[in-house]
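Need tokens for this chain, all 348 residues.
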Amino acid sequence: MSNPTVYMAPKVSEHNKYSELLTKSIEENGLQVEHYDKKNTLKPAKGDIVHLHWPGNSYRASNFPLTIVKSLLFAGLLLFLKIRGVRLFWTVHNIWPHSTGKNKWDYMMRKFILSVCNKGFVMSETVKREVIETFGVSADKLIVTPHGHYVDAYVGKGTDIRKRFGIPPEQFLFLFVGRINAYKGIEKLVEAFVSIKMESAGLLIAGKVDEGYKLDYIDPVNDGSIKVYPHFLDDHELVDYLHAGNVMVLPYNQITTSGSAILALSHYKPVVAPKLGSLSEYVSEGCGILYDPADPDGLRKALAMSVNMNMNEVEKNISKKLAELDWQGIAGKMIKVYTGTKRYEVNA
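Here are the structure tokens for all 348 residues:
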């Protein structure tokens, strides 16, 4: 009997390296992976695998009437594949789409997707519990497989980012990189940084700003220690920015799994973040500082504490965590789940 083909949706994403790294590792473990899109919608045959990652784009449209039509077509496709004998899987990267948040239509569709899938993959025990509570699925429907690391996934250009922005080499630099929008908590970060009044520290915020979101709250409180680059960072620039910072700060208002936190750890940068979603399972003890998001002073205190971390100890702790996030192990165990050979739980 020939090996099944994995149809990955998507096989490669322009937004991050996750799909590409997962695909590469699955292929190295012996299975063929194809990109799943409109061109090969009906191509998967009995025994093949369709693995969804961000299904919201497959059922949502620009207006509600079109969303209904698109949702019905997508639901029909999944049922057709199921009847054909295709094995369906969904990695629940986010409980709710970032663009819409929680709503009844997404609840209905996401609950349906989980019901027709053979298994759902989640990236931490915390997210598993949240999916069970939110959608009422059984615990054995969900398999914990962590988000792999980004070690050697990105290569920098060698640009001296500190020199570009006039940041002294000796200055302790808090860093935020990534898409900038309301749920990222940038306003809280600026407020907390200003309040610590640390003359020897700076803050660098870099990333594409979502349409409609304004950063006009920064200039009135900026004494020059806050640098902002409100533009898209390509993969190579991203590495150079990471090298410039001492600590990555991710003050999210909501999050399920943070690829940015894993990216920071992959470059041996400690992370300051709230105890939300799966962050506590990735930013484990000694890899950064997690604060209580309900504490209005939590972020400020975490920033102040991070300056005094023992970086030699931090790097040792991060090395241990990265060993747990090896892609080969994750892919090998995921394949076992694909084929139904054995159920694995891989804890972050």
